[in-house]
Amino acid sequence: MKKNKYQLLFVLCALATTFLGCDKDGEDLIDQNNKWEYLDSSKVSFVKFYQVFAGNSPTLPTAASATTGPQMLIYANGQKITGNSVGYGGIFPATNVYAAIPAGNTRFDIINGRLDLTVVPNIPKSIAGDTLASFNTTLVAGKNYSLFIGDTVPTVRVTLKEDKFTTPDVGTYKLRVANMYMNTVPTTDTVSLWSVRQNGFVISNVSHKEISDWVQLPVPIINDTIYFVRKGSGTPYVTGIAFLPTTLRSYTVMGRGKANVTGKTNAITFITNN
Fold first, then answer.
1. Cis ω on the peptide bond leading into residue 236 (within 30° of 0)?
2. How far apart are alpha carbons 167 and 249 in whole angstroms?
3. Is the full-model pTM beyond 0.85?
4. 154 preceded by cis ω (within 30°)?
5. Which of 146, 154, 177, 245 sits at 20 to 30 Å (Cα–Cα) from 52?
């Protein structure tokens, strides 16, 4: 399969490596100078970020963010890899490409997207407590990863999944499920994906903050309707959505949101991965 169609061979980086109260080599995430760096494609990994933080706290100190919760800036080894901050439901990169970052041991910092609006262009203006999550992982050169930024409920905030792409057969597509609903706790409260065209579950029992493996399915002639069913229930968890996949593509069907949270109620959405 040709990976060039969804991989970025460069990223927008900054020269800083930390923010207030978290020192690394004497540098500061606030003091940034953006630059373009061309990366050796044999030494990079490919990452896509999904912002599914369903809470409305912490917020940024602006009226517009009062009911949307944090906007997030994402750093890898101290370099900011997102341009603008990523809001709820946002994906970076926004298309079906992946951001390329140096492979190897990587520290990710997810930081509330507070900006200094007194300068143009705006730059990050983090304060103590703005780091929402930090973790280390090893990224393998040439591999693709999805990183889902969720809530603290029940414990883990970030879910990292290697995207193992294999080309579907002609006339078929591949599908997986990401269960990022904030309400499906404890982890025994799973969701299953029902397909009207298949007249049955195509993926079953995906736990909270888990991502299923891919399944291969025939492309329907007309729109399918898909919806999630919670464990022990025979009715849709949320209103189903129409879905007409394309042959040879891979998709993620994601459940996200939290009941009774303004602007972030439970929903189902799908993403084209490649």
1. no
2. 8
3. no
4. yes
5. 245
